[in-house]
Amino acid sequence: MEAKKIFTIGEINEETKNEFKSFLRETKDNQPIELYFNSWGGNTYIGKVMGTFIYCIKKRHPSRRFIHRGNIAASAAFRLFIRGDERIVTKDSIIQPHLPEPNEQGNTITHESLLKERKSVLLMIKGTLPLVTEEDITRYNNQPLPLEFMVNKNIVTKVVDQF
């Protein structure tokens, strides 16, 4: 069966989530999904919710494949990108984790909430990418991951010349 394609371009926000939810409803239970990323992130909570959609679908339909192609997948988009069964990049792709930081400008949530969210992100990454350590993510927080590192840690499953 041919994969159904969706493009995540721009900010991850409420509109993105609603489009993604509608898209998922329109697909058949066993139809592969190919998700293209070109996003610097956005609302990290919504990124987490969208990642949970993928997780739940994969639990209900284990044979369903999510193929994620990342041109740019940062912050909230990184959370979605790593949920793919296949994670494909080009040598020029920018894949960038983002952990919530207590000292980020404009952050209005409490320090305790921020630490709880940071721990949640780390647990999700560790559960999805077992070769990646907390030290790895802390070291590369807010910067593009080197291609060799992504390949060695199985963050990406394939590197292609272009999409």
Short description:
With 163 residues, the protein is α/β, with parallel strands linked by helices. It is built from six helices and five strands. Helices cover 41% and strands 22% of the residues.
Key structural traits:
five-stranded parallel beta sheet; 163 residues; alpha/beta; single chain; 41% helix; 2-enoyl-CoA Hydratase, Chain A, domain 1
Describe this structure in words.
The structure is a single chain. By secondary structure, the chain is an alpha/beta fold. It has one domain (4-160): 2-enoyl-CoA Hydratase, Chain A, domain 1. It is 41% helix and 22% strand. The chain contains 6 helices and 5 strands; from the N terminus they run βαβαβαβαααβ. It has helices spanning 14-26, 44-60, 76-81, 111-128, 134-140, 147-152; strands spanning 4-9, 33-39, 66-74, 86-96, 158-160. The protein has a 5-stranded parallel sheet. Helix 1 (14-26) links the parallel strand 1 (4-9) and strand 2 (33-39). The radius of gyration is 15 Å and the shape is globular. The chain starts with a strand and ends with a strand. The model has no long low-confidence stretch (mean pLDDT 86).
Helix content: 40-55%
CATH class: Alpha Beta
Could you give the order of strands across the largest sheet? Answer: 1-2-3-4-5
Rg, rounded, reads 15 Å
CATH architecture: Alpha-Beta Complex
Beta-strand share of residues: 15-25%
Which runs of at least 5 residues are low in confidence (pLDDT < 50)? Answer: none
CATH structural fold name: 2-enoyl-CoA Hydratase, Chain A, domain 1
pLDDT averaged residue by residue: 86
Number of extended strands: 5
The backbone outline, from C-alpha atoms, is: globular
Number of helices: 6
